[in-house]
Amino acid sequence: MVTTRKKETMIRNRKLYGVAVLAAAAFYACVPTREIRDENRTVPEQYQNQSIDTVNTGVVQWKEFFKDPNLVALIDTALVNNQELNIIFQQVDMAKNGIQAKKGEYLPFVNLLAGAEVEKVGEYTRNGAVEKNLEIKEGEEFPEPLTDYKVGAFATWELDVWKKLRNEKKAAVFEYLSSVEGKNFMVTQLVSEIADSYYELMALDNALAIIQQNLEIQQNALKMVKLQKQAARATELGVRRFQAEVLKNQSHKYEIQQEIVETENKLNFLLGRTPQHIQRESDNFIDTSIDSIYAGIPSQLLQNRPDVRRAEFELAAAKLDTKAAKANFYPQFTIKAGLGLQAFNTKYLTTTPESVLYSVMGDMVAPLINRNAIKAEYKNATDRQLQAVFEYEKAILNAYIEVANQLSNIDNLKNSYELKEGQVQALTESIELSTRLFQSARVEYIEVLLAQREALESKMELVETKKDQMLAQVHMYRALGGGWN
């Protein structure tokens, strides 16, 4: 008889096991799957017209890259006081807090409970009949209304069978790392913007100095033309033309002064302070040497550029979010347990084991019918993952193109600057030459006027080209991923 019962029990257990296996298989079969293509991380082995050399200026710290102590002091101040950067710091801290929150979700939740309750039930109910007819210690009846006091600890724990919670926690880690790289990218942009404005300010100082020098030359020429008119060797038309040129450059001087004020205030805004003078040495700006920049190889951009690394971490987080969304189709297992003391009178609350309360319960919940919301969330997760793939590929392509553009820009600006230097020298000499010829009545006043105007324009263009060279150095450094370290 015992053997027969054992066989029946074994058969029944096997059937239950088979049903469980079939149910699990059915759940797996009903889970949708969307294939997402892998990201393309390939880049050319070298930049166009560049040799393969791993020496990379992008890894140089910004305090070593910028030699001007005034500029270094400005950047130092901005990295402490800039409001937008400080906002980014708070976002990074919030992302870090998100890791802590996700980490707690796959650990047991334990809560303390203390409560008191008063309840009056109807006599013609099961509980009411028990209270009226049963007596407890020493003939005492249940109190009416019935009170209830409870104290204890109760825990709930969701078993992370499908790694949903752990994937969400890992995704939060990648989101935090992404926010850190976002902060680093913000630093590179801020450093670059400060350097841009600083060099622009120095270029404006030099442009203003050129205008003032040219005004002295033009005012001397105006005096000369007036003397020539008195000697009947020039006309009133020549005097008026020279006066107009002087007035035009005086007006241009005020325009440049306004640009200087606005550029200084832009720098002060980036430094998080009210408008004040920006300390700088602009006298030797035109003679500033242009240091060589080494671009390294394109594959280094994947490690050096904060925006590329940020896109990479966002992609990793999106992949884990997709796995977590897929886990919603599977059964969720929860364990609930409690241990405490319960009695209808506080004097019995510490009487053990009679007042001891304990419970253990396990739940399994699985979506069966109407899973549209879960399907939609899974589809959205896969779409976000595909978006992250495209964002990552776009970041790599953008980084490569930025470096390629700046490499070409630096070479072309170098050639352009050398030609403009020769142009300035030739036109500067033409001013003195035309003035002597005019004094000897061998050329008209218009020749002197044109020589002065062309010399002024060439000097202004030379300053502008020098500024563009300095900015190209900064932009190249930023494109290589420098400025945040």
TrEMBL record:
<keyword id="KW-1134">Transmembrane beta strand</keyword>
<dbReference type="InterPro" id="IPR003423">
    <property type="entry name" value="OMP_efflux"/>
</dbReference>
<keyword id="KW-0175">Coiled coil</keyword>
<protein>
    <submittedName>
        <fullName>TolC family protein</fullName>
    </submittedName>
</protein>
<feature type="coiled-coil region">
    <location>
        <begin position="410"/>
        <end position="473"/>
    </location>
</feature>
<keyword id="KW-0812">Transmembrane</keyword>
<dbReference type="Pfam" id="PF02321">
    <property type="entry name" value="OEP"/>
</dbReference>
<keyword id="KW-0449">Lipoprotein</keyword>
<keyword id="KW-0472">Membrane</keyword>
<comment type="similarity">
    <text>Belongs to the outer membrane factor (OMF) (TC 1.B.17) family.</text>
</comment>
<dbReference type="InterPro" id="IPR010131">
    <property type="entry name" value="MdtP/NodT-like"/>
</dbReference>
<dbReference type="GO" id="GO:0015562">
    <property type="term" value="F:efflux transmembrane transporter activity"/>
</dbReference>
<dbReference type="GO" id="GO:0005886">
    <property type="term" value="C:plasma membrane"/>
</dbReference>
<keyword id="KW-0564">Palmitate</keyword>
